[in-house]
């Protein structure tokens, strides 16, 4: 068969098929591994959601280190595992970021290691330490990272300086393989990342508060490399304000760079709020209230597998218990299914909607 025809056929195949076919013939091996093919395949796959699967990570705590395993939930296959070294027993809080172009970022809030990996390819790379981390390591803990993509992947590192009570920010660029410091509001306290349902990876978001105690969303634009802070505390809605005060918001989802969804469970009712407007203070509208009474009463079997759900409006979020996870369609504004994880303590934060790619970390 003509090599150009083979090239065009392979471009239409999903990543998992390519990884099987790479051993069929030597010419196929060279085609699939060529930079031109991988670049074209990545561009072609941007709008194809047929390969979206669910990826679960599970940390196992061992004295002095944490082993993180990455598994595909649709077939139970272990893709890779990685060790984080720790200096004390308290340093066990490991997280894995949302997937961006087939890459995920593994980090610990207390250790300085930041590792980028492509689970489908079984490849990982530990990033070099920034100059700030090298010189201020004893003052760095409880930090957060965000992975994004513009031409190549970038990593934002948010780290509070407890010595001077301020926030420092560094940006890593894969194109230059280097870190540099960024300007940001130093009076912010970052609490956790916000799950994004936007697939292009050009923005990263975190939830936190300012020194006045107001809840905020911090967003970073990967293309223009600028921050935006949005205040979300004083919303004018009794239920929403009360639950922010009590820290009982179920989840905040970023639909894109400037619009968000907040889910709040009030007794047996799910209240859905969506943002509107622009600027530093958005308007929050109660767009739907879903009755959960019959939903919670449903008897459902536990499983370690989440089936394919080829609807890119669906996200996985945490349920009522450490093992329960929910599949929620944020555009249709309804729950689709619920799952009980049997073999692990995986929660919604440990499950990532993942689309394979041929991009190397």
Quick synopsis:
Helices cover 14% and strands 43% of the residues. The chain has 361 residues and is mainly beta. The chain folds into two domains: 3-43, no CATH class; 49-355, TolB, C-terminal domain (Neuraminidase), CATH 2.120.10.30.
Write out key terms for the chains shown.
361 residues; Neuraminidase; 24 strands; 14% helix; five-stranded mixed sheet; mainly beta; four-stranded antiparallel sheet; 2 domains
CATH architectural label of the largest domain:
6 Propeller
Order of the strands making up the biggest sheet:
13-17-18-19-20
Assign an overall shape.
globular
Q: CATH topology of the largest domain, what is it called?
A: Neuraminidase
Q: Oligomer, anyone?
A: single chain
Number of strands: 24
Query: Looking at this structure, what is the CATH superfamily of the largest domain?
Result: TolB, C-terminal domain
CATH domain class of the largest domain: Mainly Beta
- Total number of distinct structural domains: 2
Mean pLDDT: 78
The proportion of residues forming helix, as a percent range, comes to: 10-25%
Largest sheet: 5 strands, mixed
Low-confidence stretches: none
β-strand amount: 35-45%
Q: Quickly count the helices.
A: 7
Gyration radius over CA: 21 Å
| Helix-strand category | mainly beta
N→C terminal distance: 33 Å
């Amino acid at each position: 068969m003509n090599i150009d025809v083979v090239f065009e056929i392979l471009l239409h195949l999903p990543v998992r098929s390519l990884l099987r076919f790479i051993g069929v013939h030597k010419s196929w091996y060279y085609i699939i591994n060529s930079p031109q093919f991988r670049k074209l395949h990545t561009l072609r796959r941007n709008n194809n959601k047929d390969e979206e699967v669910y990826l679960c990570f599970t940390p196992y705590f061992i004295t002095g280190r944490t082993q993180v395993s990455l598994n595909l939930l649709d077939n139970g296959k272990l893709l890779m595992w990685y060790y984080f070294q720790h200096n004390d027993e308290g340093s066990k809080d490991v997280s894995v970021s949302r997937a961006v172009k087939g890459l995920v970022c593994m980090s610990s809030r207390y250790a300085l290691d930041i590792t980028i990996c492509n689970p489908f390819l079984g490849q990982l790379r530990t990033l070099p330490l920034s100059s700030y981390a090298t010189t201020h390591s004893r003052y760095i803990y409880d930090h957060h990272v965000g992975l994004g993509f513009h031409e190549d992947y970038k990593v934002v590192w948010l780290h509070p300086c407890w010595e001077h009570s301020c926030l420092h920010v560094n940006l890593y660029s894969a194109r230059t393989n280097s870190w540099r410091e960024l300007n940001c509001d130093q009076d912010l306290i970052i609490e956790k990342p916000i799950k994004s349902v936007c697939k292009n990876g050009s923005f990263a978001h975190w939830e936190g508060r300012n020194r006045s105690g107001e809840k905020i969303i911090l967003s970073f634009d990967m293309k223009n490399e600028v921050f935006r802070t949005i205040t979300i505390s004083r919303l004018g809605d009794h239920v929403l304000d009360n639950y922010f005060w009590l820290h009982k918001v179920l989840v905040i989802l970023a639909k894109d760079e400037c619009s968000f969804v907040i889910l709040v469970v009030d007794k047996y009712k799910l209240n859905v709020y969506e943002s509107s407007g622009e600027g530093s203070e958005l308007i929050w509208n109660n767009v739907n209230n879903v009755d959960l009474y019959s939903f919670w009463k449903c008897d459902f079997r536990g499983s370690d597998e989440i089936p394919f759900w080829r609807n890119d409006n669906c996200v996985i979020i945490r349920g009522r218990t450490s093992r329960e996870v929910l599949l929620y369609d944020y555009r249709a504004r309804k729950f689709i299914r619920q799952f009980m994880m049997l073999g692990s303590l995986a929660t919604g934060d440990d499950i990532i909607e993942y689309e394979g790619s041929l991009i190397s970390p």
